[in-house]
Amino acid sequence: MTDPSRREALLITAAAMALPAGATVAAQTGLPMVWDLTALYPVDAAWAAERDAVETSLSDIASFKGRLGQNAAALRQGLQTISDLNRRLDRLATYANLKADEDLQISANQERRQLGVALLSRFAETVAWVSPELLTVGAERIRGFLASDPGLAKFRFQLEDVLRLSAHTLTPEGEALLAGAIQPLAGAQDIRSQLVNADIPWPEIALKSGKVRLDSQGYATARAVPDRTERKQVFDVFYASLKTYESSLGAALQAQVQADVFQAKARKHPSAVAAALAAGNVPTAVYRTLIAEANAGLPVLHRYFELRRRLLGLPDMAYFDLYPPLTKLEAKFDIPLSRSLTLAAVKPLGPDYVAVITKATEARWMHVYPQKGKRSGAYMDPGAYDVHPYLLLNHSDDYEGMTTFAHEWGHALHSLFSAKAQPYETADYSIFLAEIASTMNEHLLSEHMLKAAKTRDEKLFYLDRVCELLRGTFYRQTMFAEFELAIHEAAEKGEALSGEKFSAIYLELLKRYHGPGVTIDPAYALEWAYIPHFYYNFYVYQYATSVAASAYFAERVLAGKKADRDGYLGVLRAGGSDYPVEILKCAGLDMNAPAPYRALVARFSRTLDQMEALVGGA
Q: Which residue in 293, 400, 408, 527 is the catalytic one?
C-alpha cells in the first residue's frame, strides 16, 4: 500500500492528465481540483481496518435486546450504541462511494463499495429488532422515559417516528429479512450504472468544435451545440447507442420497480409511492397536487417553446432544439470565476453564509473535472458528520458548469449548517428539503448575473437560463415523476414491463408536456434510460417541489427582509429535527397547497413577459 502523500500525488497527476485546458488555468490560482479523502481515512488499509472493527462491534447491539424497556438509562445506552456505530458506518460508506466514483474501471474500488454496502446490510439486519421492540415497550412508557431522562432528548424525534410507523413495522424476523434484502435489491441500480458508465462503447462523433465522445457527460454538453444539424446528429447517435441496450436497461429498471413494489407490500403500504413518501411523512397529496398543477401550467411552458423557436429563427421546433442558449455568451466560467460569482450571488443570505462558503470552497473537498472512468454528473456527499461534505463535479467551463457548481455548494452549505446546529442524530435532513438549498443558489446566481448584464443579448441569455431552471427543474422533473408513478402503478396492476413499454409510456409524456409545437422523434423516448434518478425510489418529484419552495424563499430574501432570510437559514439549520413539510410550515410555506406551484408558474410567465418585451415582434 502506498503512503498517503504518494497516493495523493499519483491521484493528482492522473487527474491532471485527463483535464481540459480550463483546468490548468484553474489549478494555477491555487484552488484544488481533486478532493483529499485522507480526512476520512489516511490510506485504504485504514478503511479496511475500521470496517473490520465496526463489523466486530455490531455484536455490542445484541446485548440491549430485550432491555430497551427496562428503564430510561438502558434505552439511552442502547440507542447511543446504535447511533455511534451508524456514525462510523456513514464515514465508511462515504469513503467507499467516493473512491469508487473516481474511476469506475478500478475493480478494487468497486469491490470496496460492495463491502461497504454489505456491511450496511449487516447493520440493518442487526438492528432490525429495535423498532418492533420499541413498539412492544409502548408509547406511554417511552414518553415517560423521555420526560425523565434529558439524555434521551436527541432521540425524541427518532422515537416518535418509530411510533408513527407502527402499522408498517414488521416482526423482528420480518424486519431482519427485509434488512438482509438491501444488497440484492440494490442490484438493478448497480447494473444500470455499470452499463452506462463503464461498459457501453459510446461512439465518438466529429463536430465543428472537434471530436466528442458521446457518453452521458459528452451528450449533456454536445446537445447544446449551436448548429441544428449537429444537434440532431448528437441526439440521433446518442439514442441509437442506447437503443442497442433498450432490453437490458429495461430489464434493470423493471427489476428496480418490482423491488420498490415488493418493499411497499411487505410493509403494508397501499402503493409504492405511499411507501416512499411515508419515510418523510409527506402526504401523497403533495405528489399528486404537484403533477396536477404542472399539467395545468403547461400552456405557459408551451408559450416558452414557441418564443424559443422564434428567437432561434427556426421554421419549426424539435426536441433537440431545447438546449442551445438563445444568445451567444462568449464568457468562460472556470472554477475560480464560478466560485467568485457564486460568492457574490449568495451575499443576500448574510455574512455567516458567505463566510462558511468562502472557506469551504478553498478546501480540497471537490473532484472537479471529467476524467476517463469517472462517474458522470454531479453530486454532493454529506460526508461523515465529523468531517465535511465532498462534491463530485464534471465541470465544463460554461454557464451550466457554474450553475452546477452553485447548486452542489448549496447542498454542501445545507449539510454544514445542519451539522453545526444539530446533533448527529437529527442532522440528516430529508431529501424533500435537500433540493431547496441547491436551487436557492441557482435562483440567486441567475438574479445576480441578470442584474450585471449590460446588453440585450446578455439579458436574454440570463432570462432564458431562468426559464431553463424552471423548465428543467419544475416541469421536466415533474414529467419524470409522472413517468415514475405510471410505471409503478402499471407494475402494481400486474402489467408486464419492458424497455419497449417504458419507451411507449415516456413518449406519451414527452408529447403532452412539450405540446403540439414541438416535434418528438420516437427514438428519443429512450431518454428514460439516460436518467439515473429512476432508480432512487420516487426521488425526482422533490426537485420540482424544492424549486417551487426555493423560488418562494429567493423572492423574499432578495427583498431584503432579515426575518425572511433568517426563516430560510432556519430551514437549513433544522436538519432532520422534524418532518420536512412541518419545517417548511414553520418558515411560512405550505407545500400541501397548490399555491407554491401556481406562484412558480406565474413567475415563469413574468419571465417570458420580460423576454418578449426585449425582443418585441422579433
A: 408
